[in-house]
Amino acid sequence: MLDRVLYGSVTVLNLLTSIIILFVTVIIGKAVSLQIRHSLKDKVSKDRLNTISKFVYFLFLIVGFLIVLPILEFRISGFLVAGGILGIIIGFASQSIVTNFISGFFLTFERPFKVDDVVKLGGEDGILGVVEDIKIISTTMRTFEGVYVRVPNEKVFTGNIVNFLENVARRFEYDVGIRYKDDADEAMKIIRELIEEQPIALKNPEPQVFVESLGSSAVELKVRVWAPSTEWFPLRMELLWKIKKKLEENGIQVPFNQQEVWFKNALHMDENEIS
Amino acid sequence: MTDIYGTHVPPFEFSEGELTLKSTVEEEGINYIREIGDKTVEKSLFSSEQKVTIQPVEPLNLPKELTSSLLIDFENPIVIDSGMKKDIFATFPIEIAVFLESGSPEKPFDIFTLAKQKYTLYGDVKTGTICKYWATQQNANPPEELDPLIEGIMALSIINRTKEWKEVTKVVFDAYGMKIYYDDEKVGMKGVMFIKEEDLSETGFSNKPLVENMTKAREIYRKKKSAIKGGTKFVMESGI
User: Fold this and answer.
1) Which of B131, B186, B168, B140 is closest to B5 using CA atoms?
2) What's the ipTM?
3) Hey, are the CB atoms on A42 and B129 less than 8 Å from each other?
4) Considering only CB atoms, which chain B residues are within 8 Å of A204?
5) Nearest to B118 among A42, A203, A226 (CB)
6) Dihedral sign computed on CA atoms, order B104, B106, B107, B111
7) What does pTM read for this prediction?
8) Domains of chain A: residue spans and CATH
9) pLDDT tens for residues B42-58?
10) How far apart are the CA of B50 and the nearest CA of chain A, in angstroms?
11) Do B121 and A167 touch (CB under 8 A)?
């Protein structure tokens, strides 16, 4: 039974041996990759650890295939010789896969972002979300609407990448308009005190509050606040309304747009015409 | 002076300033109420053990656990000559944790603070560290009349190992390594700062109490601390 020839001189035994070898290399590969994860988990970041363990696992798989191919009488040299036309066909067919693979390889080394970073990929109308995994061929993300997105690594690598968590802190700003008759110094003092009361608004770099411009309807104040990169958005959502309420409590109001209209001829209106 | 710190058997009620802590015994457990101003937190606890411990802990939990670093900013700079050691006293913020004496005694079921909360950035935006921020005056003697529910006393030894005088305006600690001691009157700890080179200093904590007979507070970051290789020293590389 085991001596039965399947093709050429390859027997059932050869086939079984090959399957066992592949199985063993998969098991060893998984075990080594798990061991690496375990031993490096306190020393290497999670996403880098993922890449290393995947690399080691695939290395074992490749070694397994290299052992098995001669047993099954697949000669790599034969492939190379006969691979002319076939190689070109496969080359064209796998062009995008290879491009994505190489892009993934460079992304791993360049590391413009890591797992759990908030990034925008691909320019102004790009995809904004949290990086879930950086794989060899593609990068997967979760948008803030909870949608799963898979982006080929070539697009990631060649497009713009904005990483919102690369730096530990970031700044956001507001424009706040007040009436001309309000005291801008008082308004700025109130806003500074309010920012000081917010734990998340960083003490350093110092927040900035200043008169940005004298607008047509309002004195425009610029408010700039620094916050930890992971926390800036909730603070940004919360603070503007607090500023508005606090200013109003102190008699300072955000004005409506105003326009003065001058008539060439004076308007004469009989009081009786006004109903 | 405060009666709040220590282990208590419900029912109890403590009221100091705007803080009220109450616990009543119910049929199968205990009821816990904490009031600060007009904010109230109420929890029902079911446990075979009915003892509650209230004590100061590392000021890293509120409003959110964002960092392990504590930056203490001196209102007036300290100038220290080459090769000199100077002991000063400053203050640090306190958070108060409430533990149930059973199951996992290192995990508090309530944490609150009466101290002002603020964060800051030490270093630059790219490589810096987000720190809990606390401004303090420095004194030659331990500050008196501190509220032990708000702030503690830090005895800080500053050692200048360089060949020139140095001006110290702030000190940053890895607060996972804090060793807090307390009694009815005060909360305290000991810290040390070695100024080694230009723009490079190392800070850490001593495991000794400020004075004799103080009780050691539980360290709620013990597990995280043990996972950190190289201890809990902080190396200040972005100025002192």
Assistant:
1) B186
2) 0.89
3) no
4) 120-122
5) A203
6) positive
7) 0.78
8) 5-102 (1.10.287), 112-163 (2.30.30.60), 169-249 (3.30.70.100)
9) 999 888 777 899 999 99
10) 35
11) no
